[in-house]
Amino acid sequence: MLARARARLTRLPAEQVPAALARGALLVDIRPAAQRAAEGSVPAALVIERNVLEWRCDPTSSARLAEAVGDDVEWVILCSEGYTSSLAAAALQDLGLHRATDVIGGYQALKHVLY
């Protein structure tokens, strides 16, 4: 399942996340609150826990975020190590959000870039 999900994504190395943010991509941290508290937070990220991701990012949902303005939004999904985020990004693509992707290595890789 993970391999099939990743085959559909253009995954971002952590080093490319700052450039993605500069071009307007939205970085979404899907880690649970306890994990963010233990590992650290990412100030530039929107926090949308995994269990509510689809209906918060889907522009057709009545529970969507203000940032979910259409299917051309670039969603960059972040989890701890880059496994759950791949599956989550693929789920967003299934909703028609074809620019959804994730960060290779997740927060564990990104923290070395940001800090």
CATH topology: Oxidized Rhodanese, domain 1
Please identify which CATH superfamily we are dealing with: Rhodanese-like domain
What is the C-alpha radius of gyration, as a whole number of Å? 13 Å
- Main-sheet strand order equals 1-5-4-2-3
Mean pLDDT: 97
The counted number of beta strands is 5
**Continuous helix count:** 6
Helical proportion, percent range? 25-40%
Distance between the termini: 32 Å
**What structural class do you assign from the helix and strand content?**
alpha/beta
Total domain modules: 1
Do you know the CATH architecture? 3-Layer(aba) Sandwich
| Shape assignment | globular
Kindly provide the name of the CATH class. Answer: Alpha Beta
* Range of strand content: 5-15%
* SSE sequence, one letter per element: HEHEHEHEHEH
Instruction: Give the uncertain stretches in residue-range form.
Output: none
The profile of the biggest β sheet is: 5 strands, parallel
Describe the structure.
The chain starts with a helix and ends with a helix. With 115 residues, it is an alpha/beta fold. Helices cover 38% and strands 14% of the residues. It has six helices and five strands, in the order H-E-H-E-H-E-H-E-H-E-H. The mean pLDDT is 97. The longest helix is centred in the last third of the chain and has 11 residues, at 84-94.
Compact summary:
With 115 residues, the chain is of the alpha/beta class.
Relevant terms:
115 residues, alpha/beta, Oxidized Rhodanese, domain 1, five-stranded parallel sheet, 5 strands, transferase activity, Sulfurtransferase
